[in-house]
Amino acid sequence: MIIANKYEVPDFCPTKCWGKERPFSQGDLCVHCPIFNCRKVEAPEEYADQDGMFCLIAAENFREDWAQVWSEWFKGGMIDYPILPL
After folding, report:
1. For residues 32 and 26, what is the distance between their CA atoms, to the nearest angstrom?
2. Cα 47–chain centre separation
3. Which stretch of DSSP H or E encloses residue 75?
4. pLDDT greater than 80 at residue 1
5. CB 52 within 8 A of CB 58
6. Which pLDDT tens digit goes with each residue over 18-42?
7. Residue 84 contacts by C-beta under 8 Å, 6 or more apart in sequence?
């Protein structure tokens, strides 16, 4: 998937991503992840776009500074937490 019109991240959560093993909570790794936020999923009509899909953040609207960090984090083997600027 291309986010911020420039950076590549996986389309789906990698099997070796350690974030999937943790309980999901506000502020956790997955909450900020572009895969979680930008991947389109089928949705009920009232939430869906014209294709019947929904995402929290359109991939092209993902923060560019975060997009770069996430892209490098995935390419670098997903070690530790990505450091996202405020």
Report:
1. 9
2. 19
3. helix 64-75
4. yes
5. no
6. 888 887 777 788 899 999 999 999 9
7. 32, 65, 66, 69
Would you call 20 helix, strand, or coil by DSSP?
A: helix
pTM, 2 dp: 0.88
| β partners of residue 7 | 3
DSSP 24-73: P-TTSHHHH-HHHHH--EE--TTT--TTSEE-SS-GGGS-HHHHHHHHHH
Q: Which residues are CB-contacts of 82 (< 8 A; sequence separation ≥ 6)?
A: 32, 69, 70, 72, 73
CA distance 30 to 20: 8
Q: What's the pLDDT score for residue 21?
A: 82
Question: Exposed (0-12), middle (13-18) or buried (19+): which is 47, by Cβ within 10 Å?
Answer: exposed
How do beta strands 41-42 and 2-3 pair?
Answer: unpaired
